Amino acid sequence: MLSVVIREYRTRDFKDIMEIDREAFSPRNPVYDVYIYVTYCNILVADIGGKVVGYIAVMDLDKETSKIVSFAVKKEFRGRGIGKRLLTSAIERCRENGKNRILLEVRVSNYVAQNLYKKMGFRIVDVVPRYYHDGEDAYIMALDLGTQGPPLS
Predict the structure, then answer these.
(1) What are the pLDDT tens digits along the chain (153 aa)?
(2) SS3 state of residue 48
(3) Separation between Cα atoms, residue 90 and residue 54, nearest integer Å
């Protein structure tokens, strides 16, 4: 069993997050993207033995709403519950910070991510046509943190 620690981002994690981002999303400018995450977002990382294997970046949109702007786990560590642990920790953090809602966008073709989000209580609330640079649509998904929260076990 892997010993995974979910913790706050540290400056030394920048390179690991950039590599994970590049692997997961093939961005045009991963250095800039990760710079934006660390400047404007709260970031949690999944750490195994001092190596970051996943991260989630959450931005406060307003007093009541947060948005997951990026979330990825290294390919070799997927399917081991690390993403669920990161997402659960991010949801708990949003709840502790008094947020009522969490939003995110996800590719309409990304069934694996959609299934995880749905298991955690997110629902599809809208579609954004041609959201991604390759022209693919995105679903906007939302989790309401009011009286009924997601399953955290």
Answers:
(1) 569 999 999 999 999 999 999 999 887 788 888 999 999 999 999 999 999 999 999 999 999 999 999 999 999 999 999 999 999 999 999 999 999 999 999 999 999 999 999 999 999 999 999 999 899 999 999 999 974 444 554
(2) strand
(3) 13
Which amino acids are annotated catalytic?
A: 105, 117
Q: What pTM value is reported for the model? A: 0.91
DSSP collapsed to 3 states, 69-124: EEEEECHHHCCCCHHHHHHHHHHHHHHHCCCCEEEEEEECCCHHHHHHHHHCCCEE
The single residue listed with the structure tokens 């997961």 is 24
